[in-house]
Design goal:
single chain; six-stranded mixed sheet
Length: 380
Amino acid sequence: MKRKYVVVGVVLAVAPFIGVGAASGAVRSPLLTDGVLPLPPGFTSAGVVDLNDRGDVVAGGRADGPEQVVLWRGDSVSVLGGGSPTGLNNLGQVVGAEYVNGGSGQYERTPKLWQDGTTTVLAGPARSYVGTGDITDSGISPVTYPNSTAGYHMENIGYWRGGAFSRLSAPTPGPHVSLSVVTENGTTAGSFLPMSGTGAYAFRCDATTCARLAAYPGGTGEVRPVAANDNGVVVGNQNGVGLRWEGDQVAALPALTGASDATVSNNRRAINNRGDIVGASGGRATLWRDGAAVELGSPGGGQSAAVAVNDLGDVVGWSRTPQGQTRVFLWRAGRSYDLGTAGQTDATPVGLNNTGTVIGTATTSDYRSVPLRWTVRPPR
């Protein structure tokens, strides 16, 4: 039965299943290559974080000491220095922060930018436990930070643009505030969660001011924006309800037929510039396109979820087999293709770009992260 949801003037509907599983007949797979990315000498683990349209991949890797920033260009791998990466743009700039081992009761991370063999400390926030976000091609990166090194409750927000820092004022000062979403045009989005009680909300900022996003009627608990596109559409979740904000309106994403929940993927590529949104509903991978919820199927035959969508409309996600194995799949133009596990026991995707690269991760029996990469044919 078709259902419609009308929330604050926005209509979203449920569409029929159009994904095609692996068992539905022989279809040529778009998969070209898959495998494990080579680790730098001495490294035993690396968890991929992001990729760009050149196919560069960044990860946080470990040898014997603290976490290091690892970058792949093709099959060449390099170590950029100490730190935990949080974003990579199409210029090859990597943003992140390096933990500072201070005394008891001291919490500090140094924000950094890595590019072409050079490491730059990003100035601006006071010394504290700084948290960085993604970085756009125009060099914009959001930041969240406490008042001092004596605590780790996030109380302040701002952003870097071309290395220059600008502080922003959240609609409500104090903990807990976050700012992790950023778009190419400089729009940022975050959330406020009070130390106790009610009053959580999401907000959006331009270059100088921040304002609350519309509250979802009846919504309770933490509101968490996860992604936005260059048209200003923000998506996120509140207690198992997927939300979409545009202008001063908010709408709940519709569940698939027979499901009672619908959530947006916690991924910076959960929405593309066409407005496609990905996530899960009722344990099934779901795409929201043109206001309708579309089931993407499960090549593995079990539970599934969509993780990320590129600007071409390709979707990457994971599905489970009856034996419990987790495998990566690509959904394209109405069909779901099993991409497998790149030779690992299990694999989950992290992201995909617009030029045919998918990245993901596997975990060994001793809890080491294995960096994975698939390449697929571009759509016709």
